[in-house]
Specification:
single chain; alpha/beta; Spore Coat Polysaccharide Biosynthesis Protein SpsA, Chain A; ten-stranded mixed β-sheet; 13 helices; 10 strands; globular
Length: 350
């Protein structure tokens, strides 16, 4: 079979969620899909599950390797793929039945190098759809990619994932684009930056077919083991791909990195104000103080204040103003009051 799309799925100890992921892929409305599962040294029953499905569906390719990490697994998958376009799925997530047909038809309509779509994730007890501020359902040429999409990768985290995009395999091969290992900015982000620097034709669909699962103990919830601010500083101080230097001015890169750091810092403040048995309040307060008074945040706040402050709601404006003044207690009280108020409003609704 000549495959139109190859989907690459790295698998590491994903036994608990793997079957729903597999079913969502094998039931795709686009029949000419190849599914490349890379078992990355799983110690649970994942490999046995993959063997079972590979034996009954010829579209399934199973690669088994020792544990080398998600980037290495994806690169192995790219080498094994034969479809015209390549997509990526994490083994604990699911996709809608028509996802790859929707993205593929949009791609071939204008011979796109890449198509971008939305994703849905669970936040607390409700779902959130992440969308992007790009022109919808229209061909985005090289100049528009340079002006709107490349800066967005520096400014925000939300578009970094490779899982909501469809990439032309020929473009990946011709330019030798791979997922780098152990980089501060994130493997997905670096892959996308490298790809979009050479992409000539792109398209964004306001379509949500990818469903992200927040697994217990994942990085976005585990504040005991993860030093989120240290990670944010590594991203802030990291070097961008060389191709970026010819496309975006150095001063603009500094401004975009500053906006990203403050947005991340705002999220960290709210995470560390969440009650938890593992960390007492005084420890969390000290961490918030470290964030607010860090030299990098102090340097970045004027950029953020100039470009983003007016577009914020009143609550976030108040928080940013307290950050600018270094008022840690005021920030904590505001976040606490907002949480109590929101909980009270939810109880009234229910």
């Amino acid at each position: 079979m000549q495959y139109k799309v190859s989907v690459i799925i790295p698998v590491y100890n994903a036994e608990r969620y793997l079957i729903p992921c597999i079913h969502s892929l094998l039931n795709q409305s686009l029949q000419e899909c190849q599914f490349v599962f890379v078992n990355d040294g799983s110690q649970d029953g994942s490999f046995g599950i993959l063997e079972k499905y590979a034996a009954v569906d010829e579209r399934t390719v199973l690669v088994n390797q020792t544990n080398r990490g998600v980037s290495a697994a994806r690169n192995v998958g790219i080498a094994a793929a034969s479809g015209d376009y390549i997509g990526f799925v994490d083994a604990d997530d699911t996709v809608d039945r028509e996802m790859y047909e929707t993205l593929y038809l949009a791609a071939v309509q204008d011979d796109c190098d890449v198509v971008i779509s939305n994703f849905e994730s669970e936040v607390g007890s409700h779902s959130v759809i992440t969308r992007y501020p790009f022109q919808q359902s229209t061909l985005l040429r090289e100049e528009e990619i340079k002006l709107n999409i490349l800066p967005y990768f520096i400014k925000a985290d939300s578009c970094n994932t490779a899982c909501t995009k469809l990439y032309k395999r020929k473009t990946i091969q011709q330019h030798g684009i791979i997922f780098p290992e152990k980089v501060a900015l994130g493997e997905d982000g670096m892959f996308n930056m490298s790809f979009f620097c050479i992409a000539k034709r792109a398209k964004y669909l306001d379509y949500t077919g990818y469903h992200y699962r927040e697994t217990p103990g994942s990085a976005t919830r585990n504040i005991v083991k993860q030093d989120y601010f240290k990670r944010a500083l590594e991203v802030y101080q990291s070097n961008l791909p060389d191709a970026y230097t010819g496309k975006i001015q150095k001063a603009d890169i500094e401004k975009l990195k500053s906006i990203r750091l403050i947005n991340t810092a705002l999220a960290i403040l709210h995470i560390y104000m969440e009650p938890t048995r593992e960390i007492n309040f005084s420890t969390r307060y000290a961490y918030i103080r470290k964030v607010v008074h860090s030299p990098q945040v102090r340097i970045s706040l004027p950029f953020y204040y100039e470009d983003e402050f007016r577009s914020l709601g009143r609550y976030h404006q108040w928080i940013v103003e307290r950050m600018r003044r270094g008022q840690v207690a005021g920030i904590c009280l505001a976040i606490l009051y907002s949480r109590i108020r929101n909980q009270s409003m939810r109880r009234k609704v229910t």
